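Database export, one record per block. Field names are fixed; values are copied verbatim from the stored entry.
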Amino acid sequence: AFEESLTKLGLDYLDLYLIHWPVEGKYKDAWRALETLYKKGRIKAIGVSNFQIHHLEDLMKDAEIKPMVNQVEYHPRLTQKELQAFCLTHGIQLEAWSPLMQGQLLDHPVLKEIAHQYNKSVAQIILRWDLQNGVITIPKSTKAHRISENANVFDFELTNEDMKRIDELNQNERVGPDPDNFDF
């Protein structure tokens, strides 16, 4: 799969390569393959996606190289604070997918109120919250004006009070599959 990806992309190496799901009985073998490619310089960083603490602990028991990135569903309704703390402690960079909860948060009254205070969009508030939490974020959009707006989050900072208000929106609510109970 790695060689096929390189060929399709027309590249000699990849900056980041992830194991997409913690498939029981398979992710350790996949990780060993990533470690080999990393040691050969074919990949600059290796990581995982959708791994919970117990998956990371299990993987790191036998790994020579710890994951550099863990890409997970992360947004104000799913803050994953324990996972975030674990990753921080172990030097694993947390990266958010679906940071805007597939658009479901764009009309949230608390987020709209905060956005109004800063003269920003709700999306910008969420993305800034991600960044201030030390989380890399990947918002998805096909619209040029939204892509530009999403990148314009470095000219303001949320107060500690607003960060806390956003944290308090957590309901452990997912829009994607649960990494412990997926069936594909």
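Remark 1: The longest strand covers residues 43-49.
Remark 2: The chain has a mean pLDDT of 95.
End of record.
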